[in-house]
Amino acid sequence: MSDVVENSLQNHLLKLECHFTWTFFKEEFDIDNIEERLHDQIAFLPSTHRHRLHNLLAYTSYLKGDNQEAIRQLQKAEELLQGTQTAHLDIKRAVTYSNYAWLYYHSNQFSKAQSYIERVEAICKKFESSPEHDILLTERYGEQAWALLTLYGKYCERAKECFEKALVLDPDNPELNSGYAIVMYRLESQDLILYETSKYKSIEFLKRAVTLNENDTVIKALLSLRYQSLGQAEEGGKIMEEALRQTPDSPYLLRYAAKFYRNEGKIDVAITILKKALNQTPASGSLHHQIGICYREKMKSLMKSARNAYTRNTEEAIFHFEKAVEHKQFFVEAYIDLARMYGRANQFDKAEDTFQKVLSLRNLTWEDKQEIHFGYALFQQQAARSESEAIRHYKEVIRIPNKTKFRAFSNNNLKQLAEQNIKKTPSDPTGFRLLGFIHQLDAIDYYEKSVELDPDNKDILSALSCMKCSLSKA
């Protein structure tokens, strides 16, 4: 193929709407974990549009370098679409055909790639000036939104935007409303974990989604948990019980039910539910993590004098946290929980190794780094009894400007250490140095507020720059 023809083919490919043009990056997610979840969804979420899952599996297979398996997954997607009864089958085929075009291009089968490009262009031309054009756009936005939602992490905000575009065109679509409610729930939950507050409010979207789709028990479970978080556990419990009557064996519902009952202090009930779910999806890192949390809670409720039970629960927690990171390699929270549990078991070398491993994971966010260093500081302070190392990691948290709860906790813990130092050894300058560091941080916050009000004041900007430079060296 000549360069001119290949460039022309590339230009046409880049105009297609599909997984290859929606800007996903291999380095940003755990492919094996995503594939495991996709296979579980195919097996246990019968309401899910399975052609969508096979399209995603085609893309992950391509990322792993297995183009033949990718083609097989697209063939499965096509077979499933062929079996559906819909008046807009061609519209639903557009994304699959676009993925075919890209895969054949990457397999150097250029004539086949060109053939699928032509099929997509024919579909677009057929509907571009017809009443069904909005349906074509809705399908595109919806497929992109679900793909982004499935890949988690930093893609949640983009998924939200795609769902919003789709819902403008089809506001009463039950599936789109469910997807939008899920993404709003996740965004709100992420904020609450990091900042203890959120600009996102998911409860009204969850209620609307439940109204539009009474059979979606996962949405009911999320609504139940949100009611619980708002102090309305009784209402949440009724919804959860109803969902469990509808799909008592769904591992996706069971994991949320277990979280609900754990939050209510019913730890043994939660463990029973989680193990039932684990029997169906044994490679779920999330389920192992939740079971580990339950055993950690049981351990906390025991006095160390109850040595046998305390040790048994510690060992169970470690086992499940180890399984969690084995099955889900970028699971930051599970690594931190595992490292701190090693500390409780006096396995300090393993704890150190685990903290170092999680710090070396690629694509950590600044919030991830704050959470890791905060966990590391607590381990050093409470288990390893190294105050100097604890101080070092608290400072690492604080030097990252994101105002998460981990930063606030680190500030408070440093202040307590400083005051204890001064009270215990007034002649030791360590405590005073720490207080100076903390007050310097407060001063930076005030200067930043001043800059917001007077952004062009060079003196303030210069002073702020000097303070930040000084803080990084303190």
TrEMBL record:
Coiled-coil segments on the chain, per record: none
TPR repeats: 332-365
Gene Ontology terms describing biological process: response to other organism
Keyword hit for Repeat: yes
Pfam families, per the entry: TPR_8
InterPro entries: TPR-like_helical_dom_sf, TPR_rpt
SMART domains: TPR
Gene3D superfamilies tied to this protein: Tetratricopeptide repeat domain (1.25.40.10)
Keywords, sorted A to Z: Repeat, TPR repeat
SUPFAM superfamilies: TPR-like (SSF48452)
Protein family according to the UniProt entry: Belongs to the IFIT family.
Annotated protein name in UniProt: Interferon-induced protein with tetratricopeptide repeats 5
Organism encoding this protein: Xenopus tropicalis (Western clawed frog)
